[in-house]
Design a protein that fits this description.
Elements (H helix, E strand, L loop, with lengths): L1 E3 L5 E2 L6 E4 L5 E6 L5 E6 L4 E3 L4 E7 L7 E7 L2 E3 L2 E3 L7 H11 L21 E4 L5 E6 L13 E2 H17 L6 H15 L11 E3 L18 E2 L4 H14 L7 H17 L23 H15 L2 H9 L12 H11 L6 H24 L14 H15 L6 H14 L24 H6 L19 H7 L15 H4 L3 H13 L3
Parallel strand pairs: 1-9, 2-10, 11-15
Antiparallel strand pairs: 3-7, 4-5, 4-8, 6-7, 8-9, 8-10, 11-12, 13-14, 14-15
Helix pairs in contact: 1-15, 2-3, 2-4, 2-15, 4-5, 4-6, 5-6, 6-7, 6-8, 8-9, 9-10, 10-11, 10-15
Amino acid sequence: MESIHINQLGYRPNDKKKAVLPVDAVEFDVVRICDNDVLYSSKTGEPRYSFASGEIVRIADFSELTELGEYKVVSGENQSYPFVIDENPYGNLSQAVLEFFHYQKCGVNLDADEWSHAACHASLAHVIDKNGVKTGEKKDVSGGWHDAGDYGRYIVPAAQTVAQLLLAYEHSPNPDPVVLNIVWFEIEWMLKMQDKKTGGVYHKVSCHNFDALDEMPDDEKEELVICPISATATADFAASIALASRFYAEREEELLNAATRAWQWCIDNPQASNFKNPPGVNTGGYGDPDCEDERFWAACELFVATGDEKYHNYIQSAELSTGLGWRDMGTFGLIAYLLHTGDKADPELKQLMKHRLMFAAQDIYKVCKSDPYGISLGTNYRWGSNMDVANNAMTMLLAGLFEKTADYQAAALEHINYLLGKNALSQSYISGFGSKPMKNPHHRPSVAVGKTVPGMVAGGPNGNTRADSALHQHCSGMPPMKCYVDHIDSCASNEIAIYWNSPVYFVLSFLGL
């Protein structure tokens, strides 16, 4: 019975190696699989209560074992899934997490094994107003990535994804040059979403409704509609496109022109309201009542890119905030200012920003230390909790650029361990990896083909089980870390999304995994 929770891929020789035992066992062995020899034996830690899993658990620490091989942790009748100690236990994980974006491509003939399809969503799309009425304008907005398990394309999560992938490229000890080509495919689509007359950016393009779950992208033939310009989409566009300008020197002028026009729209429309789906449109909304963090991020990136003091003036009067998710983008702005403004920075403001980042990382780290599984969610497992897992790890790694400590890297690595099976369900949340990987995602191409695209990160446990019937049927009344079901109908726990893969890729890249 595989009831001992562990990273199902494995560990490098010098990594911290800890398994979680949800049984009251005081001793454990690490057994080599090829010959059943016991390579390491020790006592477990003191009992600890996991509020997230609702269990008393013990920790089995076998960090002292460094001999290469394939193993399992055993305690009485309980054991873990197999894992390896190896110089490269992760294999092609990071490449697969990145390759996922290829499978999400829209508007092109996709060559992707079983998931290949003809160009989809290539027709002109109708611009509609806030009342859902067509304006008479049609636009070519082909390209980009399908956002998640559906085929909509949305600027707000696209901006987060682009930023995290580019930052992964920037901070990786071994950057993969293919990242820039992959991201450029999304940027080309984002540029099409900008209104040429005003500089504002349309919030999203999709059909009016989600299509059938077993339908391939090129089978979705319904009318495409472009929803109105929004403040968050425009500010996110300005920020992420300005960020991109330093990675694509040959397109710098084009990108900065687009970013500055978007910024001007934000300045000219300070009271622009929160985005809401127009009547008749029922696809993802990504509404955000507060766009100040997005504007702050945009000002920081534009100041880095241009040195223009008008952006600095805005930054100096803005409220500082933190966050790496599509609703809260403040940390992206902090990092841009802290790392790339040089002697143009306001020293006091820079110190204040550094403190804000440090406080955010320290708060995350404190939760990690108190959690038996070593992660940072406490009991707050919401829709897309695995994004929070990866974003929190990313926050600690970024803070570690300014506070030299191995603690943050070790804590970030525990978050990868969690995603690969060291959790209360012994569930690997990345398709195609581990002994018990996610196999039944809420992802239309995977459902249509009957085979799961590899390298996708599932949304993860969601304490609000009423968010979908499949989750509620299987997990009602369960503790939050166990509120997950590997089922195609569970959009609330088993959907995938571009902005869930991107922070995982950042962490893997930063750690050189």
